[in-house]
Amino acid sequence: MRLGVAMPAALAALAGGVFAWYFHTAGGAPNAFGWVLVAALLVVGRCPRFSIWLLIGAWVFTGVQEEWGSRLPAGLSGEDLAVEATVLAAQPVGNATRLLLSVDQCQSSSTSLAQRPSCSALTKVRITAYSDVRFRPGEQWQMTLRLRPPSGFANPDTFNYEQWLWREGIHATGYLRQEPAPVRLSSADPSLRQLALDFLARQPLDDRTKRWLAALTLGDSEQLTQDDWSLLNATGTTHLVVISGLHVGLVASFVLLLAKSVARFATPTNWRMRTWPWWLAALACVSYATLAGMAPPAMRAMVMTLIGLWVLSGRHAPGAWQGWWLALALVLIVDPLALWRPGMWLSFVAVAWLIIIWQGRRRPQGIKGWCWALVRSQLLLAPLMAAAVLVAFGRVAPAAPLINLVAVPWVSSVMVPTALLGWLLSPIPMVGETVWWLFEQALSVFHLLLTLVVQHWPLWEPDRSLAYPLALALLLLSLCWGLPAVLPSLRLAATALIVALPWWSLPSSIPPNALRVSVHDVGQGQLIELRSAHYRLLYDTGPRFRSGFMPLEALWSPGQLFDQVLVSHADNDHAGGISALLADHRVKQWMAPAGEALPISGIDCQRGQTWQRDGVSYRILWPPAGDNDLSANDRSCVLEVSAGEQRLLITGDVSTEVERRFLREVEPPVSVLVAGHHGSGTSSGIQFVRSIAPEHVIFSAGRSNAFQHPVDSVVRRFRQQGSCLWNTAHDGALRFWLKAAQPIQVETTRPLPGRRNQC
């Protein structure tokens, strides 16, 4: 590839990816714009000079389209599939094992194969194995899986699990069937990476040291616990742990420095003209990325480091910007899905900004010069990266600029060198262990520093109305201090704006006498957030899965404050998230029915309780006060919320018999009803439905749940009443305002084609 086409090649790759996304979202049939674009590409393709651009765009387009075409067909969702697969990764999760499989063969286990789609296009799946069988990477197994197309919970401003699965090339998720039992077809071929992980597991080191060594040196970041990731996210230091340009660059730089020293000793007269040190550094770069598993971050870092070595060598080398465009083109050609990975854009934006702030400046000299260069780069880079993270993830680590000033040199100069040196010296008895002991002490200092930072400056998740102004202000700060010839007064003004903006008193996004209701998508369970201007209540906490994961963990960053949490009853699908609330958040008051075995203490939820907050009225309609012999479902707290003439009714899991017992206290019509027991036939009786005549009905249920909630009879019952029906399984999280004299308008997170958002 000629260097003159580096930028056009990158733009062609970007265009191919964007067009593939547009083609897919348009339903596979491009409109007039699509045909115009196709015609333009054909015209350009007639010119041999531009044919390489068309080829690159077509390559990326085809790669993205193939990923969509490899997804599990919807017709096979929930079906048993017999597969032969190779284990790519096996990670213990609670009492289960999470497996990443490369599918070699796949066919349906059903005896009726007529009119069933094929699963032969599947290449990679992610499953959970609830068994005592031990799986090792590299083994080939014959097993029966129950899969579903990639999907995730659809909640606004949260991690998009479905998109993550897609960009990681995972085409289905599910679990391993116990019967028939899985059969090992072949043992794992010994790989250098797996041998290294096994060797590390046998070392007499602390568990935390082992998992951080695996992440820092071998790219096995899945060994890090949720607590590790929370600590890194809260301090803005995640980039220091995953195999990135920092680690690959350090390896290449160390080998280059060592090789140049040897060349200077061997050929003192013309050592600067030797090329083999650069080739040796490039070989070390590729070898290290391969050892780390050649995951997308490692591959991206390898490409950028190789081109960086070429640029720095000065031998027929491209300029800095040509190298940047060339790296972008190569990354997209090798990995078309990188276009949708936030990490890629953060990396390239960071490198582009470093080029801008250092272009035209002299190379630092001496230790003092390099230390100042590191401080200057970090200070100028931090605001831009904070703005990018704020836009991408809606959060910012306030102490990230300061902590990175210490963490970057500590990790790069102490932790990574001792970790890698430990591997080099591991064949020598006691020596490698001693070096890793030094790494363990350095890790303890690093971990203590991050913990102290989190305690004093926790992760900040600003209001959405403030996020974009703050990101714009951070960008302005970076430009004012990073670009040359900017007036000092503008730099001081930008700094003052950043300091003042977080304290700027924005009007509350929730007006008085109004309630913002969010029925979150938590699968087969229930979690409802009710929020007014100065009050925040949770009704139920969502489920806890067999693997230990709680959907509540993915909804908010740690440190949230809830004025009240009302747990309808102790069933796992309603109370499973209590432990996450206790561990990560603050709750002023708990409410639950008397007699429920819950790990909380608070006031009993009982009939007749009323309170008001911000002009909104709350009333408990059930259960009765005192001891009772009701079932757990029939003890559910029933909550009625009123804002003017608008009323919300949440009935938990009570049965039709209980519904009749509090029916007279409900004044019809009800504006919004959260259907009892997720739409089960044991709730929402005919008399109840006809009496309250709900305008909107929400089913909080999981997609393709085993109970078939909501059941057909209940759905028909509400439709005959003229209610507008919503389901978190299909619509995602649902939001609406409860305001006096204002009709209900339900907002969906996952709008369906042709679905009306008003009834």
UniProtKB/TrEMBL annotation:
Pfam families: Competence, DUF4131, Lactamase_B
Gene3D superfamilies linked to this entry: Ribonuclease Z/Hydroxyacylglutathione hydrolase-like
Keyword field contains NAD: no
GO BP annotation list: establishment of competence for transformation
Top-rank taxon, per record: Bacteria
Topology in the lipid bilayer: Multi-pass membrane protein
Ranges for domain Metallo-beta-lactamase: 524-703
Keyword flag Transmembrane: yes
Alphabetical UniProt keywords: Cell membrane, Membrane, Transmembrane, Transmembrane helix
One GO term describing the cellular component: plasma membrane
Subcellular location: Cell membrane
Bilayer-crossing regions: 36-61, 240-258, 278-295, 307-333, 339-358, 379-396, 402-423, 435-454, 466-483
SMART domains: Lactamase_B
Protein name: ComE operon protein 3
Native source species: Vreelandella titanicae
